[in-house]
Amino acid sequence: MKANVLIAHGGGPSPVINASLYGAIQEAKKHEDIGSIYGAIGGVDGILNESLIDFKEQPQEKIALLPQTPATAIGTSRTHLTDQDYEKIVEVCVKKNIKYVLFNGGNGSMDTCGKIYKKAAQQDIRVIGIPKTIDNDIAITDHSPGFGSAARYLAVSVAEAAQDVKAMPIHVSIIESMGRNTGWIAASSALARKNGGDAPHLIYVPERAFNEKEFLEDVKRLYDRLGGVIVVASEGLKNEKGDPIVDPILTKGRDVYFGDVSSHLAMLVIKELGIKARSEKPGILGRSSATLQSATDREEAIRAGAFAAKAAIEGSTGYMVGFERASAPSYACETILIPIEQVMMTEAVLPDNFINERGNDVTQAFIDYCKPLIGGPLPEYAEFVK
What we know:
Blueprint (H helix, E strand, L loop, with lengths): L2 E7 L7 H13 L4 E7 L3 H5 L3 E3 L5 H4 L19 H13 L2 E8 L1 H14 L5 E6 L15 H21 L4 E6 L6 H5 L13 E3 L7 H15 L2 E6 L15 E3 L2 E3 L3 H13 L3 E4 L4 H4 L6 H19 L5 E7 L7 E7 L24 H7 L16
Parallel strand pairs: 1-2, 1-4, 4-5, 5-12, 6-8, 6-11, 7-8
Antiparallel strand pairs: 2-3, 9-10, 12-13
């Protein structure tokens, strides 16, 4: 009897999670000793409920659309699993003759992946994690599939907003980015700049305590000089005590529904400085845009999925696929395997050398790191007003 493959998605979707799914399917199809290639419908719930789809029974022209399809075509979940649930997952794998489990997700999902690996080891079920997070906060790997596209989306959005504000420079625009406890996405807005002095004019990340007094000073100084100011602020901003600057709407375990940071900062500008201000919150638009998908991100996501499938089928288990950047003049990343224990619930934050001294911008080191990931140059615009 041929062994089967199971692919499951966990946590929030990304612009390229389906690209990894595509890579895993295409690689698994190359192996004659593989029977069904299952996808769990609705994440771990699909495994527990035995709600599975066999990709070998799906038309290839439909599977070919996966790399350009946003979110996740098989669904996902944030279900908190019990020890009994992990036992049930192994039981389902044994029942369905699933010998290879590929789990695609972020920090929490890699924790789930590691626990499945430990439970399934005695049954000779091989488990490999595929990284996925727009937040770019998975440890060890140079970056995670999903981030490059989210970074491109925010950089393009900020560049377009900058054209609007520059055309009628009468207000301060606060743009809030996703990113949970880390500032990778907010920092990526710096790639919107083509020339010195371009927007974003200020960038605030959770890795540095937010100083309200300095924020207002910086906004006033820039507004007096430019008339129009664009600020990018991460949803996870914290004060000097480590508390969110806006109370979360709801917190359930690792799931945090952040308060409206951009609205809070805009109101500060209005009340304290008497300057017109607007708040913008792209939210999930930034993780669901296939239109602004990074070509580099898409290619690497496909490669990560294929590498995971190949590694599992060839005997590896208990690892997550990662990327290791080569020290070369041009950008290149090698696909590697990282022991899953090293990434379970471990958060990668912006290093100090990526943030400027005042904590209101990024450094050239971050630009050099991030620029290759967004998949080519941003659009050019006609400008006649300096």
